[in-house]
C-alpha cells in the first residue's frame, strides 16, 4: 500500500469563501479536530493577509503538535518572514509559497515575463528554506500553464530547495484524464521530482475536483489537498472526506492509505458546517443527511435481506451515531459528562458545568436529547465562552395573526451594557424581528441569505437558523440553534453582527 498525505486547507482556501469568517477560538477548535481526524498537514491560514489570520495561525501552530501546520505566503520576502513569525512554534515549521505560472496570470495579474517568474520563484524558495525545513511550492493555475514551462520552473524550484511541489487546478478547468497525464508528464520530465512530495490541489468548478484528485493519485501524486465538506471559493475545493472514503472502500483499486481516522468523519464535517454556517446538501456523498437513507421499497427490501445489497459505506465507518436517543431529563451530570467525553469533547470543569445547565434547560422542554442536539450544545459551549457577545438578546416576542400586522418586540443588552426595548413591524414574523433588531443596532443590515433547518428529528427538534448579512460593507454569517425558530433567527442575526464587531475589535487591538 502506498501512502497518501492529506493536506487540509479548510482554514485557508475554505475560509476564503464569501461570508465565512471564523474567529480564532473556532479555528483552533477545527484545527484540533483535524488533528484527531489524522490529516498530515493543516493549512491554518495566510499569516501576512491580516493581523487576525496571523494570530490564528500562530495559536494553531502552538496548539497542534502532532500534525504539521503550514501557512500560505506569496513570493514576497515580507510574507515569508511574517509567516515564519507565526509558524515557528509548530513541531515542524512548514511554509506554502506560490506564484502563478499560466500565461494569462503572468501577463495580466503579475505583469511579469516567464523568465522573471522563474527568478522570483527560485529566490522565494531559497529564502523560505533559510527559515523552514519544509517548503511547499505551488504553481498557481498550473493546469492552464504551458507544460514545458511548468517542467522548467519546477526543476528550478526543486534545485532551490522545495520539499513539496503542488500542481493546482486553480480554476477547476482540468478533466481527470488531462490532470492525470500532467502528473505523469512531470514525473517523466523533471529531474529530481522523485525526491519531493507531489501534491494535487483541485477546485470544483466543473464538479470534477474529487475525480481529478483521484486521477492524480493514479498517476503518482503522494499528497492530496482539499477541504472538509468541499467548502471553498466559488464551487469549492475537493471534499477530503470523499477522497478518504474512496481510498478506503476502493483500496483494492487505489492500493493506498491516507492515515485518516474515518470514524471522525461525521464529527469533523458537522463541526465545520456548524462553525462556518455552510449547510451540507442532503444528498452529498459520505456526509449528507440522506447518504444512508433508503427510500424505495426494492432498496429497503434488499437492505433487510443483506445491507451490502445497496450500502457500500456503513454509517459506523464514518462515525455516524448509532444511538438515536442518548440522554433525557433524568440523566445526571455524570452520565452527561461521560457521554460528552465519549463524543470526543474535552471541556474545562467550568464549561462542563455550564453545558450541563444548558442541557437541563433543553431537556425540560424537549423529550429526547439526540447526539446532534448534544453536539450543537457542547460545541457552542466549547467556543463561545471565550468571546463575550457584543449584543445580547434578553427576550423576543412576536405578535402574529393572519389578519394582523406582525409586530416584534425585543429586549437587548447593547455593547455599552444598556438594556433597550424596541418594537417594529414587518410583512412576516421574521422580517419584523430583523427590522426591530436593525433599529437596535442603528445601522443598515442587508439580509443576503436566511435558512432554518432542524438539527435532529421530531416535532420538538432544535431549529438551527443561519443568517448571512452585509453590515458595514462586510459579509458575515451568524447562526444559532434554539427550540423556537423565531428565537434562533433573532439570535443568529445578532450573532452575525457580533462576529463582525468582534472581528473589527480584534483588528483594532492587535
Ligand atoms: O487554487 C490555488 O491555486 C491555490 C494556491 C494558492 C495553491 O489555492
Ligand atoms: Zn485553491
Structural notes for this entry:
- The protein is an alpha/beta fold.
- The protein folds into four domains: 2-276, TIM Barrel; 292-317, no CATH class; 333-383, no CATH class; 392-509, Double Stranded RNA Binding Domain, CATH 3.30.160.
- Helices cover 43% and strands 20% of the residues.
- It is built from 18 helices and 18 strands.
- It has helices at residues 10-14, 24-37, 51-63, 77-87, 103-110, 114-131, 147-160, 176-189, 209-218, 240-249, 251-254, 265-276, 297-305, 333-342, 349-365, 371-384, 429-441, 485-509; strands at residues 2-3, 5-8, 41-43, 68-74, 94-100, 134-140, 164-169, 197-202, 223-226, 256-257, 325-327, 369-370, 392-399, 407-413, 419-425, 445-454, 463-471, 474-482.
- The strands form five sheets. It has an eight-stranded parallel β-barrel with strand order 2-3-4-5-6-7-8-9, surrounded by seven helices. A three-stranded antiparallel sheet has the order 13-14-15.
- Helix 3 (51-63) links the parallel strand 3 (41-43) and strand 4 (68-74).
- Helix 2 (24-37) runs antiparallel to helix 12, helix 4 (77-87) runs parallel beside helix 6 (114-131) and helix 8 packs parallel to helix 9.
- It is globular, with a radius of gyration of 24 Å.
- The chain starts with a strand and ends with a helix.
- The structure holds 3-methyl-2-oxobutanoic acid (KIV) and zinc ion.
- The site of 3-methyl-2-oxobutanoic acid has 10 residues, from strand 6 and strand 7.
- The site of zinc ion has 5 residues, from loops.
Amino acid at each position: 500500500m502506498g501512502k497518501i498525505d492529506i493536506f487540509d486547507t479548510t482554514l485557508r482556501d475554505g475560509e476564503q469563501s464569501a461570508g465565512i469568517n471564523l474567529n480564532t477560538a473556532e479555528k483552533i477548535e477545527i484545527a484540533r479536530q483535524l488533528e484527531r481526524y489524522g490529516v498530515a498537514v493543516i493549512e491554518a491560514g495566510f499569516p501576512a493577509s491580516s493581523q487576525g489570520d496571523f494570530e490564528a495561525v500562530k495559536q494553531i501552530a502552538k496548539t497542534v503538535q502532532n500534525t504539521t501546520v503550514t501557512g500560505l505566503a506569496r513570493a514576497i520576502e515580507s510574507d515569508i518572514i511574517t509567516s515564519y513569525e507565526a509558524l515557528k512554534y509548530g513541531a515542524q515549521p512548514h511554509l506554502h509559497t506560490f506564484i502563478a505560472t499560466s500565461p494569462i496570470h503572468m501577463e495580466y495579474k503579475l505583469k511579469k515575463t516567464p523568465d522573471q517568474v522563474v527568478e522570483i520563484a527560485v529566490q522565494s524558495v531559497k529564502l523560505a528554506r533559510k527559515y523552514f525545513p519544509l517548503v511547499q511550492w505551488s504553481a498557481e493555475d498550473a493546469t492552464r500553464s504551458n507544460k514545458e514551462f511548468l517542467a522548467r520552473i519546477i526543476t528550478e524550484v526543486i534545485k532551490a530547495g522545495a520539499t513539496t511541489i503542488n500542481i493546482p487546478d486553480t480554476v477547476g478547468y482540468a478533466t481527470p484524464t488531462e490532470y492525470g497525464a500532467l502528473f505523469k508528464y512531470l514525473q517523466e520530465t523533471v529531474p529530481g521530482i522523485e525526491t519531493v512530495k507531489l501534491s494535487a490541489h483541485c477546485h470544483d468548478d466543473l464538479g470534477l475536483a474529487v475525480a481529478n484528485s483521484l486521477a492524480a493519485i493514479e498517476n503518482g501524486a503522494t499528497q492530496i489537498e482539499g477541504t472538509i465538506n468541499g467548502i471553498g471559493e466559488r464551487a469549492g475545493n475537493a471534499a477530503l472526506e470523499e477522497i478518504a472514503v474512496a481510498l478506503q472502500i476502493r483500496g483494492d483499486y487505489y492500493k493506498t492509505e491516507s492515515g485518516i481516522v474515518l470514524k471522525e468523519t461525521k464529527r469533523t464535517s458537522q463541526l465545520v458546517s456548524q462553525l462556518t454556517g455552510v449547510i451540507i446538501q442532503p444528498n452529498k456523498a459520505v456526509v449528507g443527511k440522506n447518504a444512508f437513507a433508503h427510500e424505495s421499497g426494492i432498496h429497503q427490501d434488499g437492505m433487510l435481506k443483506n445491507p451490502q445489497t445497496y450500502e457500500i459505506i456503513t454509517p459506523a465507518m464514518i462515525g455516524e451515531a448509532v444511538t438515536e436517543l442518548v440522554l433525557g431529563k433524568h440523566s445526571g451530570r455524570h452520565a452527561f459528562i461521560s457521554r460528552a467525553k465519549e463524543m470526543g469533547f474535552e471541556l474545562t470543569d467550568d464549561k462542563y458545568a455550564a453545558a450541563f445547565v444548558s442541557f437541563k434547560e433543553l431537556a425540560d422542554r424537549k423529550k429526547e436529547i439526540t447526539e446532534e442536539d448534544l453536539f450543537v450544545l457542547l460545541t457552542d459551549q466549547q467556543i463561545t465562552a471565550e468571546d463575550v457577545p457584543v449584543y445580547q438578546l434578553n427576550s423576543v416576542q412576536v405578535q402574529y395573526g393572519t389578519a394582523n400586522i406582525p409586530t416584534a418586540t425585543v429586549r437587548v443588552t447593547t455593547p455599552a451594557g444598556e438594556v433597550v426595548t424596541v418594537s417594529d413591524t414587518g410583512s412576516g414574523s421574521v422580517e419584523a424581528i430583523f427590522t426591530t433588531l436593525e433599529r437596535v443596532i442603528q445601522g443598515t443590515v442587508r439580509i443576503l441569505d436566511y435558512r432554518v433547518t432542524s438539527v435532529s428529528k421530531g416535532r420538538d427538534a432544535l431549529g438551527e437558523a443561519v443568517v448571512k448579512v452585509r453590515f458595514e460593507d462586510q459579509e458575515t454569517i451568524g447562526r444559532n440553534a434554539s427550540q423556537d425558530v423565531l428565537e434562533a433567527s433573532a439570535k443568529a442575526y445578532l450573532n452575525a453582527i457580533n462576529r463582525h464587531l468582534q472581528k473589527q475589535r480584534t483588528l483594532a487591538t492587535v
